[in-house]
Fold Flagellar secretion chaperone FliS.
Amino acid sequence: MNPYAASTAAYQEQAVMTATPGQLVVMLYDGAIRFLRQADAAMGEQAVAHSHDRLNRAEAIIDELLSTLDMSHGAIPENLEGIYVFWKKLLWEVRLERDREKLAVLIRQVANLREAWAQIAQSA
């Protein structure tokens, strides 16, 4: 590993270790958005295997978001569960149909919810 990569990895690890729960959620959203955008670029280049890998990584993040929901808190986690399940369905359709328009819709939705989480994390 080159020195730049090592220092970047150390910085990222430190950021995760010192983040609040809200900031961690925002980081997960950032990762999902990054992978979805990379999948879109790969689809544009007809790089099917790479796009599937990126979509799988985004789906793994959505799975993590789903698994961390505390359903004892009422309507909000229930609504988030519905959103995340819808996103997984949309990802499946994007993979199956290679539909970049659906992927663009998904990216916008994830980005919008990411902004809401960022505001929550900032005010906490």
